[in-house]
Amino acid sequence: MSNKGELKVTVVEASGLKDKDTVGKSDPYIELYIDKGYKQKTTTKEGTLSPVWNENFKFNINNQHTLYLKVLDKDITDSDKIGETKVDLKEVFSKGYVDTWVNLPALLGLTSHGKVHLVKVFAGLVSSQWIIMRRIVEAKNLKDTDFIGKSDPYVELWIEKGYKQKTTVKDGTLNPVWNEDFKFNIHGEHTLHLKVLDKDITEDDKIGEAKVDLKEVFSKGYVDDWFKLPALLGLSSHGQVHLVLQFTAE
């Protein structure tokens, strides 16, 4: 697969940073870059050695293999370096998604100046796209929204709202079986949206809906599981949907 495309990096947090201030605690921020000529940086978090950012950055990748990180302590005059590291991008090129902590090694790598939590997502160019293959297998114990008879359920699913796909309608059942396949291109999105509806002559009634976090399928490559359709406040369920999810390159 070509290592050309877009790299999305979320700087989540840091932990156990070395304190550079003699009075009080450091005010850390992070510089990150692929090419030295284009550095990006987080906001500064005042007076903490365990800052939380949850800030997102994008980089265009043209066969570069390394992400550089430098953690600094913001001072009135010159910022002091807390630690720095290099992150090899081979794993995210291979898997498409990596959620990990990286250490900030001290001199000679004998100790650590702390660690940084990163989430990296790589979306290749059109010639080599990451895709999610989905099979909607079945549902069970769906909430009946019809006063007479049983619901006629179908499922809408989407990654981006502008492009929804849907199953066929199964008449008069609360335990429908579909075994229908769908495919979506992935460009760094993390969530699959599901909505189960009851087909009616006038307006379709919503049976339930759910959001499926794709982190597990990004990590494992394949997930076969049941997903609940939570009711109000999540105190009960409007049924479950059986999905098979596969993450691959095309």
SS field, number of helical segments: 2
Residues in helix, %? under 10%
- Largest sheet features: 4 strands, antiparallel
Strand order of the largest sheet: 4-1-8-7
Write the CATH homologous superfamily of the largest domain.
C2 domain
CATH topology type of the largest domain: Immunoglobulin-like
Strand and helix order: EEEEEEHEEEEEEEEHEE
- The whole-angstrom Rg is 23 Å
Structural class: mainly beta
> From the coordinates shown, what is the CATH architecture of the largest domain?
Sandwich
What is the percentage of strand-forming residues?
over 45%
Number of domains: 2
Give the oligomer, counting copies of the same chain as homo and different chains as hetero: single chain
Number of DSSP strands? 16
- Unreliable spans are none
Mean pLDDT: 86
Name of the top-level CATH class of the largest domain:
Mainly Beta
Distance between the termini: 9 Å
Shape: elongated
InterPro entries: C2_dom (IPR000008), C2_domain_sf (IPR035892), Ingression_C2_domain (IPR052981)
Protein name: 5461_t:CDS:1
Domain C2: 1-102, 112-227
